[in-house]
Specification:
Layout: H1 2-13, E1 27-28, E2 46-49, H2 58-63, E3 68-71, E4 76-77, H3 80-88, H4 95-119, E5 139-145, E6 148-157, E7 160-167, H5 169-180, H6 189-196, E8 207-209, E9 215-217
Helix pairs in contact: 1-4, 4-6
């Protein structure tokens, strides 16, 4: 694992990315180093707005397929770098920092996974003995996934789901990734998107540049 992590960090360093690529002023939001801690997510500090009110160009907002989640009224960054900053005081920012912290986090996760396997009781029941009844109170869960904090909100009454909503890492990071691409040649755009959210890497392949150097969107998907 050490050799693998060193290889990844070395490959990123050798890319020669320009200084400051992918750096934003967005605050970091994380609830736990590996799992998730509901108590670290304050619902009163959370708001969710439509993209038409977030983007300067309303037409761009109308085409967006994701709402804009805010914490303290601002967009935030979630993910391995955010966790490293919140819990370990990591100071680096931008594309390189994203890849470095993601690689280092693999070592922590692997070590924890080995410990869990050692404690696993394979003869234990596979289902929890729990009867779902529910109340009118909104239930909230926070999970730290590989790409960042994942918040689920649900309301259950009489054994049936009345309301459900999830805020996945991609949703949190989308309003942060836009500013992270600004100020650099468009060729670096895909590198910024992949660093923040590998789930969106396919989307970075549907942007091409025409003869007049204007970005246009292709209608077909491009295989990676």
């Amino acid at each position: 694992m050490d050799a693998h992590v060193d290889l990844i960090i070395g490959l990123v360093a050798d890319k020669g990315f320009p200084e400051g690529l992918g750096v934003t002023n967005a605050a970091s939001l994380a609830t736990h180093q590996l799992y998730g801690d509901r108590t670290k997510f304050d619902l009163d500090r959370f708001t969710e707005i439509m993209p038409e009110t977030w983007y300067d160009d309303p037409e761009v907002g109308k085409k967006a397929c994701s709402t804009i989640p805010l914490y303290d009224g601002m967009s935030v960054e979630v993910g391995p770098r955010a966790r490293a900053e919140v819990f370990h005081g990591f100071k680096g920012k931008g594309v390189v920092a994203q890849h470095v912290t993601r690689a280092l986090e693999m070592k922590t996760a692997l070590s924890k996974a080995i410990d869990i396997l050692g404690e696993l009781n394979t003869s234990a029941p596979v289902m929890a003995d729990y009867e779902i009844t529910g109340t009118n109170k909104l239930g909230i869960g926070a999970i730290e996934g590989p790409r960042g904090m994942d918040v689920h909100m649900a309301q259950v009454a009489n054994g049936k789901t009345q309301f459900y909503s999830c805020l996945v890492p991609t949703t949190w990071n989308i309003p942060t990734m836009g500013p992270a691409t600004e100020g650099f040649h468009h060729d670096f755009g895909p590198h910024v998107i992949r660093a923040y959210d590998p789930c969106l890497s396919c989307a970075t392949h549907v942007i091409v540049v025409d003869d007049e150097d204007r970005s246009i969107i292709k209608n077909e998907m491009v295989r990676i």
